[in-house]
């Protein structure tokens, strides 16, 4: 029986492929924004969104299985956590679109949010394990990043909910709202909505903080460019999630929102990053 090990990365990233990918995403984002989002129907853009998550989840489990035979317990657990998180993310999206086809308008919060919670937990566990695996003791500057970014977003979100200056949308811009937020054409966000959002609003910046810390650690780490691409992919999801959970205060998610393209490109980058991980693992 062969034994699997990790080797030094080749460092070869196909930048032409990445550029082509981002050009394609811009095209996707444009047509996605002008094509009306019809409730009770899964359109082409939503099928594509599900498809890229299926591909990314499949690749995550393939790589997790390969890491499982390396004998390195921390990396085994890290990539298994990521794969489970990716599966949760896929189930979350599938649940969302299933509720939509049943006529549930802007289902939030809903049972499928448990899938998104699994994604956040799995990605955060992965980021933490891999970062501390190669740098067990963080610097004061890195700890500062881990504290400040989540705290800033958490405070801003609470201020938004309690009636400070808030960003409504592109049409209405910033507005001051007394007491709890209420916009005449939207329902008021109830307590369950608020506490669900505040959980994710905290987890997303925390993931972003660990991604930034991990980026500084892995510039010279054994996983090299492959892992840096991976945290970029995870980071793009975070850049979509943060405006998403703020917008849930003001009326709900719509597929045509500009940040949807980050949900689309993120699993593609993650898939490519995980594919590059195959260069790091070989049998002896």
Features:
284 residues; 8 helices; single chain; mainly alpha
Which H/E pattern describes the elements?
Answer: EHHHHHEEHHHE
Count the DSSP helices. 8
> What is the CA-CA span between the terminal residues?
10 Å
Percent range of helical residues: 55-70%
Largest sheet: 2 strands, antiparallel
- Would you identify the regions where 5 or more consecutive residues have pLDDT less than 50? 173-187
Radius of gyration: 20 Å
Provide the domain count: 1
Count of DSSP strands? 4
Query: Main sheet: which strands, in order across?
Result: 1-4
**If you average the pLDDT, what whole number results?**
77
Strand content: under 5%
The shape is globular
Transmembrane segments: 12-32, 44-64, 76-94, 114-131, 143-161, 194-215, 227-246, 258-275
Keywords: Membrane, Transmembrane, Transmembrane helix
